[in-house]
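Table 4 source record.
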Amino acid sequence: MSLFLVTIEVQSQIGIGTTLPNPNSILDLTTTNRGFLLPRIALTNTTSPAPLTAFVAGMTLYNTALTGDVSPGIYFSNCTSWISIEEASKKTWYSETTNAGAASNMQDIYHLGNVGIGTTSPDCELDVTGTGAIKVPVGTTAQQPSVAVAGMIRFNTTSNKFEAYNGTSWVNLN
């Protein structure tokens, strides 16, 4: 009597609500009238995996607790901590020299995206909305920046006129 053992590896997808799951997915949930409910877990803080035994990169859950530095909401693990989806979605200011999150508004900083002052939905790189005024740099002709780039604007108190740097020289705007 002969006994043959054969191992066959099968790759497949699981479909819930569909008989044709997407071939690029491992799990395809398809519905037009229901939601996906994440596991609901009470975290203790972002630096502890508890009540899980370890951080697992990509682990996603809905935190139900309001304690330590966590509040109810969706969190994911980056392998060393829990990160709130709400916090992760906020665009931060970055240090121009280190490319890390800025620690102070006195650093040379930049922002990914548009910046709004007086608006929560800026339409361009800098959108200042309101009925007040914008204060531009003010100084004499002798105080013009020695290192200027095209597009700079200032008010010249020597000529009492707005001026702009056109790439080669300062020119009056009015």
